[in-house]
Design a protein that fits this description.
The protein has 199 residues and is of the alpha/beta class. The chain contains six helices and nine strands. It binds 5-O-phosphono-beta-D-ribofuranosylamine (GRF). 5-O-phosphono-beta-D-ribofuranosylamine binds next to helix 1, strand 5 and helix 6. Keywords: Purine biosynthesis, Transferase.
């Protein structure tokens, strides 16, 4: 199966997928990596693995709609079976969702529907929850609201800082991502309302 991964930052989730895909039994490989900005480690990781990259910055287009159309076209060129947002910090638009909405997944560093948005671990810590984690879900038009594929939990420790909690979550998050992407591509999936079924 063909994976296109979208990144905006360090790309450690991307790296986990690149590493998993070196085993042919995994059933998927990363055929392209897209980003919304230059100069990020995620793009370097792709290049180091010999995976083609593209960059679509919102400000390089006259409107958000034009950006959405360009991103959709660039992703489509690579004929993905699954598109993965792995730390991609942009909300895609209607054209992208029309093209890939049934196969566009995102990993979020909190247990949704708690703590959506870009500061999941910080918000969880501030709230005082005792269990944190990561959520893998199909993206819809909302912010971190789509049908959930899987969740993994980790404890919040008394002496956690934002950094230590973030790292504990990310470790579990990467494992979950690799496992669930493998499962999706090998077994397929159906989405009925909010329910994701993997046969
Ligand atoms: C992940 O924890 C993801 O949940 C969040 O940003 C992080 C991306 O990390 N949205 P990386 O770029 O894969 O290292």
């Amino acid at each position: 199966a063909r994976l296109v991964v979208l990144v905006s930052g360090s790309g450690s989730n991307l790296q986990a997928l690149l590493d998993a895909a070196t085993d042919p039994a995994y059933g998927a490989r990363v055929v392209a990596v897209g980003a919304d900005r230059d100069g990020i480690a995620g793009l370097d990781r792709a290049a180091a693995a010999g995976v083609p990259t593209f960059v679509d910055a919102v400000k390089a287009y006259p409107s958000r709609e034009d950006w959405d159309a360009a991103l959709t076209a660039h992703v489509a060129e690579h004929k993905p079976d699954l598109v993965i947002s792995a730390g991609f910090l942009k909300l895609v638009g209607p054209e992208f969702l029309a093209a890939f909405g049934d196969r566009y997944i995102n990993t979020h560093n909190a247990l949704l529907p708690g703590f959506p948005g870009i500061h999941g671990p910080r918000d969880a810590l501030a709230y005082g929850v005792k269990i944190a984690g990561a959520t893998l879900f199909f993206v819809d038009s909302g912010v971190d609201t789509g049908p959930i594929i899987a969740q993994v939990s980790v404890p919040v420790l008394d002496d956690d800082t934002e950094e230590t909690l973030t790292e504990r979550i990310k470790e579990a998050e990467r494992r979950q991502l690799v496992e669930q992407v493998g499962r999706l591509v090998r077994e397929g999936w159906t989405i009925t309302g909010r329910k994701v079924t993997i046969p």
